[in-house]
Write a structure and sequence with these properties.
Elements: E1 37-41, E2 46-49, E3 54-56, E4 61-62, E5 68-69
Antiparallel strand pairs: 1-2, 2-3, 3-4, 4-5
Bound molecules: zinc ion.
Length: 79
């Protein structure tokens, strides 16, 4: 049986939209979430970062290559 990674069909995002100096961490970097938000869609629960990462409200992530990273930390109030 063939197990294929989930892929995103439709819109193909560029690997990086980053125009910042210095460059933001790439989507392959452990610091990927530190990249700037290019498009926020709080009503849909996700944001697009300039390195092509889609960051979901629950801390799940969708990488530009279509890989999915499961939510990895609870959303807690910082107060
Ligand atoms: Zn950037």
């Amino acid at each position: 049986m063939d197990l294929t990674a989930p892929t995103v069909t439709g819109t193909r995002l560029p690997d990086s939209l980053c125009t910042h100096t210095p460059k933001c961490p790439t989507a392959a970097s452990p610091d990927r979430e530190a990249a700037h938000v290019m498009a926020a869609h709080p009503e849909q629960g996700w944001s697009l970062l300039c390195n092509g990462l889609v960051l979901f409200e629950d801390t799940g992530e969708l990488l530009p290559d279509g890989r999915v990273i499961a939510p990895h930390r609870p959303l807690v109030a910082t107060a």
